Amino acid sequence: MAQIFTRKPLELLLKEMAGDHRLRRVLGPIQLTSLGVGAIIGTGIFVLTGVAAHERAGPAMILSFVVAGFACALAALCYAEFASMAPVAGSAYTYAYATLGELLAWIIGWDLVLEYAVTAGAVAHGASHYFQDLIGIFNLRLPDGLTDAPFDYNAALGKFVSTGRLLDLPAMVIVGAVTVVLVIGIRESASFNTAMVILKVAIVIFVIAVGVFYINTANWHPFAPYGYTGINFFGNTLLGQADKGGQPLGMLAGAAIIFFAYIGFDSVSTHSEEARRPERDVPVGIIASLLICTALYMGVGAVLTGMVPYNTIDINAPVSGAFKQVGLTWAQLVISAGALIGITSVVLVTMLSQARILLAMARDGLLPTNFFGEVHPKFRTPWKSTIVTGVFAALLSSLLPLRLLSDLVNIGTLLAFVIVCSAVLIMRRTHPDVPRPFRAPLVPLVPIVGILTCLLLMFSLPPENWLRLGGWLLIGFVIYFGYGRKHSVMSRFLREEITEHGVSPAGAPVTEN
Fold first, then answer.
1. C-alpha pair distances (Å), 392 with each of 116, 150, 153, 158, 397
2. In this predicted model, what pLDDT tens digit does every residue of 203-224 receive, in sequence order?
3. Domain count of the chain?
């Protein structure tokens, strides 16, 4: 019991940055902001906007972006404070270990595996849809069996149904190509990502600048056809409407779905160990990327729901589909190509972040150190962790449906944000004198409101997501108690302290029993 609640000293975290196993400091504020924008703008805006508007919120999806962005902004301030205090790999996992203890650190680390690896798989689905939309312009098609996952989840029926497909081949190929780039090195990956970010931001601006001339304001009426709420508690609707399958409807329900569009800003903090001046550059990267993307998202949401009625939006390729519906077929080619490249950059950044989470957990002994903790002698990247992440994401992207993956990522990420906000409150009390180059404002108000907002969105997700989250965490507990607890670095430290001083961590004499 003493071990699983043992906190990792902040001094030890900082000491780990020295030695042969630390990562190369090559990233500045522009590259970090680019990584954040690269992780954020992708499937969320190019695909899930269609799902949120068509099935959950209607034109009120514009406000859904505001609510989801507000929740992320509160969490971002907490992330930025921690990143400036402890600029090492690991993100929320590392912060939880320093404040909440080993078991909760494992939970958040396992939760981040859910966020990043599953996000990569979900995002690859979006890239696949736009690839197929792109080649369709030239009257080319893949064999039907290789175009999608073999099954999907039907919320109305409450069960999985067959799609008649074998696997999503384009998604698998995209993940494989990104894995190769990531193994080569962080500098090359960041440069590749920057080029893709420039292109996809240009595409988003193009969508807003051209689409604004085709807005029909009649499409914004009714603005909130499903209302402004949509809060569900384990299948029971508390506020708002629900469909026949018990799925919550309304603006808040749309925010819970659209929340996926913001996932990625927190990945900037996983690269603290690779930042040249982490105490300054990481907070800048987190906050700047979030502000840029929020402004772009609201513009796209307004254009998309203004160009076509919300109930006619194509949920697979909503942005290019909207331009096609208004007769701008030439723009469909530009948007599909840009979206394909832009979404691919999200796969890159999420997989980049995932490998660094596994690296941090392996350093602590919670995963096999010789495998997940190994840094390539030439490229200075956690190459084995990267390959494992690539294989896992490729299987998810080719075999599981987008909606199942995206909802699972949403609830896992919201849980991570709740823990980070809680950790800031704890750290302010337990370590008030530790230097904080960046301080979250209005503490304790900001973290408390962040916790409540994230919980509100969690309860606006379909109820089956709680069961899937519970199943994922159960698998994590088996791994922790079967391997991690026995091989933990902190566990060895505690045993050495007891052997040397004859006292337990609590200070009580050790007795023979």
1. 11, 17, 20, 26, 9
2. 889 999 999 999 999 999 899 9
3. 1
Q: Is residue 468 part of a domain?
A: yes
* pTM of the predicted model as reported, rounded to 2 decimal places: 0.78
pLDDT for position 157: 67
Residues of the domain holding 383: 34-141+149-156+187-501
H helix or E strand, kind and range, residue 233: strand 231-233
Looking at the DSSP bridge assignments, the partners of residue 241 are 249
Query: Could you identify the residue written with the tokens 């400036």?
Result: 84
pLDDT at residue number 507: 41
Residue 260 lies in a domain: yes
- Give the span between the Cα atoms of 355 and 33, in whole angstroms: 19
Instruction: For residue range 113-156, list pLDDT tens digits in order.
Output: 887 888 888 888 878 888 888 888 888 899 989 888 888 767 66
What CATH number is given to the structural domain containing 464? Answer: 1.20.1740.10
Reported as half-sphere exposure (CB side, CA atoms, 13 A), residue 20 has a value of 5
pLDDT over 90 at 435, yes or no? no
* Number of Cβ atoms within 10 Å of the Cβ of 14: 13
Is 453 within 8 Å of 70 (Cβ atoms)?
Answer: yes
Those residues whose C-beta lies under 8 Å from the C-beta of residue 238, and which sit 6 or more positions away, are 231, 232, 459
Residue 501: both structure tokens together: 């001083």
| Side chain identity at residue 79, one-letter code | Y
For residue 54, being part of any structural domain is answered with: yes
What tokens were used for 50?
Answer: 């269609």
pLDDT at 111: 84
Identify whether 50 is part of a domain: yes
Query: Tokens 């859904």 map to which residue?
Result: 64
